[in-house]
Amino acid sequence: MALAPSSSGSEPVIAEVEMKNAGADQAATTVRATVVQASSVFYDTPATLDKAEKFIAEAAGNGSQLVVFPEAFIGGYPHGCTFGLAIGNRTAKGKEDFRKYHAAAIEVPGPEVSRLASLAGKYKVFLVMGVVERAGYTLYNTALFFDPLGKYLGKHRKLVPTALERVFWGFGDGSTLPVFDTQLGKIGALLCWENKMPLARTAMYAKGIQIYCAPTADASPTWVASMTHIALEGGCFVVSANQYCRRKDYPPPPEYTFGGLDEEPSPETVVCPGGSVIVSPSGTVLAGPNFDGEGLVTADLDLGEIVQAKFDFDVVGHYSRPEVLSLVVKTDPKPAVSFTASSADGEKGDDALQA
């Protein structure tokens, strides 16, 4: 285990593809993975990107090959914000809060994605970054993946935003459930409480995930138990990253207020205590949980442990009963509107468009 407190060229080609250049004979046997536990600079995406680079540089300096950031690190997780919502009513301030939150989100692809790809290439790391993705006027809770060559690999959009998240984040679909075959092993991610969805987890297991990333905003005492269960169930390493946030990491009142509390918290009040953790396929906690502050949580992952774990329990292999229980995953995009054009003879042309 290693727990370290933080010390505080040309653009790559962006292509959303799964890596296919890493066979079993090329794969690493031990991977040094680092979780970054830190807060965003809320409403300030350029400053958040600068902060991310400092942590990436520090992790790379410690020999890390994989760096995983929390859910919604770029764009920010809006702890305590209600966006002025009550049933049947939205306040003017709440609408302005959403306008600013929308402005802090990023487009994928876009300039911020290009910078993140450049950082992955500069520091030679695989990078998993939680972002708030802006697609038109709808926002998504998204994880982005980058390789050490400075290439953007693809994204995962959270399937089901949790509770009040559903009023400011849209729903992902099965077209963004990737597991990338990399030189470090097969890497993918589910976000926060979609890790509690058994069928979503099973889809990841069926894709052969070895390093299961779980960016989150959940710092509850039961989260480590959930991560341990997933590691045991999937026979994989679980790398979970959460933010560590104080009230002072958000704009002061009245610009930003925390709802549901009897009184406004003091600037030093911890609003998210972290709990980032790395767990092995045997259920052993390798590093963390860190509830002490911002910092790096690092562990060396021996991929040979995966084979040993699968010998005991392979949920989509020898311990499955597909003639009794099976899962169908619909991986086609689900746009709200599809446009089709017909040729003169009444057949569909090739210029079908989707929105």
Short synopsis of the structure:
With 355 residues, this protein is α+β, with helices and mostly antiparallel strands. The chain has helices at residues 45-61, 92-104, 111-123, 198-206, 223-234, 304-312, and strands at 2-5, 30-37, 66-68, 85-86, 89-90, 126-135, 138-146, 152-157, 179-182, 185-189, 211-213, 237-240, 244-246, 270-273, 276-279, 285-290, 295-302, 338-339, 353-354. Strand 7 and strand 8 form a beta hairpin.
Reconstruct the topology from this structure.
Blueprint (H helix, E strand, L loop, with lengths): L1 E4 L24 E8 L7 H17 L4 E3 L16 E2 L2 E2 L1 H13 L6 H13 L2 E10 L2 E9 L5 E6 L21 E4 L2 E5 L8 H9 L4 E3 L9 H12 L2 E4 L3 E3 L23 E4 L2 E4 L5 E6 L4 E8 L1 H9 L25 E2 L13 E2 L1
Parallel strand pairs: 2-3, 3-6, 10-11, 11-12
Antiparallel strand pairs: 1-17, 2-17, 4-5, 6-7, 7-8, 9-10, 12-15, 13-14, 15-16, 18-19
Helix pairs in contact: 1-3
Family: Belongs to the carbon-nitrogen hydrolase superfamily. Nitrilase family.
Organism: Miscanthus lutarioriparius
Keywords: Hydrolase
Read across the widest sheet, the strand sequence of neighbours is 1-17-2-3-6-7-8
- Total number of distinct structural domains: 1
Query: Which second-level CATH architecture applies?
Result: 4-Layer Sandwich
Shape: globular
- Oligomer type: single chain
Q: Mean pLDDT score, rounded?
A: 89
User: What is the distance, rounded to the nearest whole angstrom, between the alpha carbons of the first and last residues?
Assistant: 47 Å
- Number of beta-strand segments: 19
The CATH H-level homologous superfamily: Carbon-nitrogen hydrolase
Class based on secondary structure composition and strand pairing:
alpha+beta
Rounded Rg:
21 Å
Taken as a percent bin, the fraction of beta residues is 25-35%
CATH topology assignment: Nitrilase/N-carbamoyl-D-aminoacid amidohydrolase
Q: Helicity range of the residues?
A: 10-25%
Query: Could you name the CATH class?
Result: Alpha Beta
Pfam families: CN_hydrolase (PF00795)
Domain CN hydrolase: 31-303
GO molecular function, one term: nitrile hydratase activity
Catalytic activity: 3-cyano-L-alanine + 2 H2O = L-aspartate + NH4(+)
